[in-house]
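Tokens for DUF4179 domain-containing protein. Go.
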Amino acid sequence: MKNDNIDELFKDLNFDNSEPEKGHRDRFSQKLQDKNPSAKKRIRGRSLWAPFTGIAAGLALLVFLGGTLFNSEAMEKSGDLASVSPEMKQTQEFYTSLIESELKEIQEEKSPETEAIVKDALKQMEKLDTEYAKLKKDLLKSGKDNRVIYAMINNFQQRIDLLNTVLTQIEEIKQLKNQNHENNII
């Protein structure tokens, strides 16, 4: 069989390629019905509902695609990093969640001694937010220019740096306060 031709392999086999005789489908359906009387009902039911299920599936697909298209257009009009690409969406979500967690930590650490630092930091955050809003408009105007995208990412990094600096200052104030209390106790 190493060098046998494919025709020689199948020459003894009889492949009947002719059409089945007339009435084959009816006879086959009758045999199915004889074995299982509910089979014919299912076949008829399936053929009756098939066009309706196809139409329903088509409508569901149109609704899904329409919603996706509307959602993507809304994202593109927003001017966020998320509208640029899936990677930028992940970047924006990462920075946003990090900023929110650090803001929450600052609010928890707020005390009379650190109130001035926290207020100043929140004012600076508002300025960065305003700058970010301008960058979002620039992104829409520029057609997703890489320089604007870089500036938006840089804005997020500046916010995080600001919050980290504030947290560091709060920790230093807490340590100084603890050292002063230790000296007063002695």
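The chain has two domains: 24-73, 81-185.
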